[in-house]
TrEMBL record:
<dbReference type="GO" id="GO:0015031">
    <property type="term" value="P:protein transport"/>
</dbReference>
<protein>
    <submittedName>
        <fullName>Outer membrane transport energization protein TonB</fullName>
    </submittedName>
</protein>
<keyword id="KW-1133">Transmembrane helix</keyword>
<keyword id="KW-0813">Transport</keyword>
<dbReference type="GO" id="GO:0031992">
    <property type="term" value="F:energy transducer activity"/>
</dbReference>
<dbReference type="GO" id="GO:0098797">
    <property type="term" value="C:plasma membrane protein complex"/>
</dbReference>
<dbReference type="GO" id="GO:0015891">
    <property type="term" value="P:siderophore transport"/>
</dbReference>
<dbReference type="GO" id="GO:0055085">
    <property type="term" value="P:transmembrane transport"/>
</dbReference>
<keyword id="KW-1003">Cell membrane</keyword>
<dbReference type="GO" id="GO:0030288">
    <property type="term" value="C:outer membrane-bounded periplasmic space"/>
</dbReference>
<dbReference type="InterPro" id="IPR003538">
    <property type="entry name" value="TonB"/>
</dbReference>
<feature type="transmembrane region" description="Helical">
    <location>
        <begin position="16"/>
        <end position="34"/>
    </location>
</feature>
<dbReference type="InterPro" id="IPR051045">
    <property type="entry name" value="TonB-dependent_transducer"/>
</dbReference>
<keyword id="KW-0997">Cell inner membrane</keyword>
<dbReference type="InterPro" id="IPR037682">
    <property type="entry name" value="TonB_C"/>
</dbReference>
<keyword id="KW-0812">Transmembrane</keyword>
<keyword id="KW-0472">Membrane</keyword>
Length: 239
């Protein structure tokens, strides 16, 4: 048996109307909730209750800074009175100092001219009497050439004995030749030492070696002690 629907009994027939009505009601309630305002009860406050306390506070006095008075103006310069010079000034009489026929001429004693010794620098290779290195005195009888050879031999012996390679130069791999120039003074001491080399540390070591040289017998030219320049190379070579 087939069931038939009654058009009057259709529940979803007015569902759209109910939805619109419900939506309008919800919007009205929401609007009323947003527009709702609540006011506090009005209370009369006594605004003058703290005025006395405010008036009782001590108000600090403004300190007045006293400015020192300006310095007094400088005193007026004293008036200088010009007084005429009435005193008589004696005239200075200039005497004639020119000689004439009657002037006696004093005898002048003989004037001795002192010889001034000049500091001469005579090279080691041409000096008459070469400086004598300590230990070479026995070679003096053999002549100047024997003294020169002994001097150079003792010089190299001194360098080899006191030679010390600077550690910093070894670490840096620095090597080379340092030319040393010095002067044997008139008293046999060593002075005016100069060096020229590839490194300052090597130059310092060469200066230290030369500073250890002993005092020598000074060189002589024509029987008088003179300064004798001397130069020698010191070679620094890494093994």
């Amino acid at each position: 048996m087939e069931l038939k629907k009654n058009p009057k009994a259709d529940i979803g027939r007015n569902s759209g109307l109910f939805f619109v009505a419900g939506l309008a009601l919800v919007m009205l309630i929401t609007w009323q909730a947003l527009e709702y305002k609540k006011y506090d009860d009005v209370t009369n406050y006594d605004l003058s209750q703290n005025i006395d306390d405010m008036l009782d506070e001590e108000v600090p006095m403004t300190e007045q800074i006293k400015t020192p008075p300006p310095p007094p103006p400088p005193a007026a310069p004293e008036i200088i009175q010009v007084v005429e010079d009435e005193a008589d000034v004696p005239e200075t009489v200039m005497k004639d100092t020119e000689a004439n026929e009657e002037t006696e001429v004093a005898e002048v004693a003989e004037i001795e001219v002192a010889e001034v010794e000049e500091d001469l620098d005579i090279p080691f290779s041409v000096i008459e009497d070469v400086p004598i290195f300590p230990g070479c005195e026995s070679e003096k009888s053999k002549g100047a050439n024997a003294l020169r050879d002994c001097f150079q031999k003792m010089m190299f012996k001194h360098i080899n004995k006191n030679f010390r390679y600077p550690e910093i130069s070894q670490e840096m791999g620095v090597q080379g030749k340092v030319n040393v120039m010095f002067v044997i003074q008139k008293d046999g001491s060593i002075g005016s030492v100069r060096m020229r080399g590839p490194d300052k540390n090597l130059e310092a070591e060469a200066a230290r070696i030369i500073a250890k040289l002993p005092k020598m017998t000074p060189g002589k030219q024509r029987g008088r002690a003179v300064r004798v320049p001397f130069s020698i190379p010191i070679t620094f070579k890494l093994q």
